[in-house]
Amino acid sequence: MLSLREISDRLEIQDLLSRYSYAIDERDWDRLDEVFTPDAVIDYSETGGAKGSVAQIKAWLPIAMERFPRYQHMVATMKLELEGDSARCRTMLFNPMIYTGDDGVEQVFFIGLWYRDRLVRTSKGWRIAERYEEMGYAHNVPDMPPVPSIGNGKP
Fold first, then answer.
1. For 112-129, how does the pLDDT look when each residue is reduced to its tens digit (9 = 90+)?
2. Cα angle vertex 108, ends 103, 114, to 5°?
3. 135: β partners
4. What is the C-alpha to C-alpha distance for residues 133 and 113, in angstroms, rounded to an integer?
5. CA 138, CA 147: separation in Å to the nearest integer?
6. Which domains can be identified in the chain, with CATH numbers?
7. What are the tens digits of pLDDT across the range 36-80?
8. Sign of the alpha-carbon dihedral angle for 66, 48, 45, 84
9. 3-state DSSP call for residue 10?
10. Which three-class secondary structure string do you get for 56-95?
11. Whole-prediction pTM value?
């Protein structure tokens, strides 16, 4: 039987993962400060993105995501291992996206991946200390230029 603390921790972590998705989907990059620890490492490199600190990723995301007029980050089943004030979590993500090419034509495509996170309890609640995107699959991905690296500016 789960203790009240474990139930609370699980719900708080589930809420944390939802807050991440909403921050990304609403392009509210500053809300990521409420999701990650200040010293977090975020690694999107396996899925074609960048790796860096929260500040670096917050500066990179508007450039990387501007080519996608609409998208949704839908988190689902998570495998959570709680250990006191820290946790490990592997969470499924289904990510439909729309890409607008140089010709103005929109194409819908789908990405399935897992977030592999290390989480910590802080004085402000649970936060992600490390996030790694693990590629699962992609369907109907359009031909598009690579996403810029951190610090390289617009593609």
1. 999 999 999 999 999 999
2. 130
3. 113
4. 7
5. 16
6. 4-139 (3.10.450.50)
7. 999 999 999 999 999 999 999 999 999 999 999 999 999 999 999
8. positive
9. helix
10. HHHHHHHHHHCCCCEECCEEEEEEEEEECCEEEEEEEEEE
11. 0.94
